Amino acid sequence: MHIVFLPGLDGSGLFFENFRKTLPSSMTTQVLSYPRDECHTYQETVDLIYEQLPRDNEYFIVAESFSGPVAIEIASLAPLKLKGLALVSSFCFSPLNQLKKQLAQNLLFLLHFPSSQALIHKVLCNGTDLALSLKIKRVVDALPTSTLKQRILSALNVDLRGALDDVEVPLLILQGGQDRLLDPSCGVTIKRYYEAAEFVQIDGPHCLLQCEPEASSKVIVPFIEKHHSSLSVL
After folding, report:
1. What is the Cα–Cα distance from 61 to 56, expressed in whole angstroms?
2. What are the pLDDT digits (tens) for 157-205?
3. Tens digit of pLDDT for each residue in 106-134?
4. pTM for this structure?
């Protein structure tokens, strides 16, 4: 069983280590990242990632936060070897309502570095992991402001609800019950447009795979094993 990981807004792929340690030895992993010095739209990111996906081995995608729409778009293209998709703390449609989205877009020009570790610690980690929030700050501060702004704008304006009609692989939605960044409706919206999806909520912050790796693994590993087994039987 092979898992392809797609990263959050930072695009680095540096934050999966703790979760990967929880995986059984039967699972191999591949962590993809996004260019730090280039401003990609979601479609450009999809094109970039699609070219790096396995061609010879069956695989599952685990997509975190920002990368959820990337994974949905890829799944809608029905790549032959893709066998399942897990969306963690993610969305298929703008995570803010229209008023908040407009406000965020208007204030985006104020975005500056260095970022606030206190804010990251409170909003992304819910005050549970100071070392993680510091690492996130360092990675985010290393990004060009233009790259980060482009990714935020892409997330604010994305709408892949229609693309879910073309997704035919098993889908897992994993959501943190204490997520302070995304509205709880984000996971519900994905489920609404893909009724067959498995929806699981665990007690944790936005950074679920980092702050709650064991609890996340207890959901994601059985999902992969179940659908890998059913495919093997077929």
Report:
1. 15
2. 899 999 999 999 999 999 999 999 898 899 999 999 999 999 999 999 9
3. 666 656 656 788 888 998 999 999 999 99
4. 0.93
Contact 39, 154 (CB under 8 A): no
* Cα–Cα distance, 215 to 167 (Å, whole number): 26
Tokens of 36: 């730090």
67 falls in which pLDDT band (50, 70, 90)?
very high
Q: Are 96 and 71 in contact (CB under 8 A)?
A: no
Which long-range contacts link 135-139 to residues 24+ away (Cβ below 8 Å)? Answer: 135/14, 135/15, 136/10, 136/15, 136/207, 139/10, 139/12, 139/14, 139/15
Cβ atoms within 10 Å of 93's Cβ, excluding its own:
18
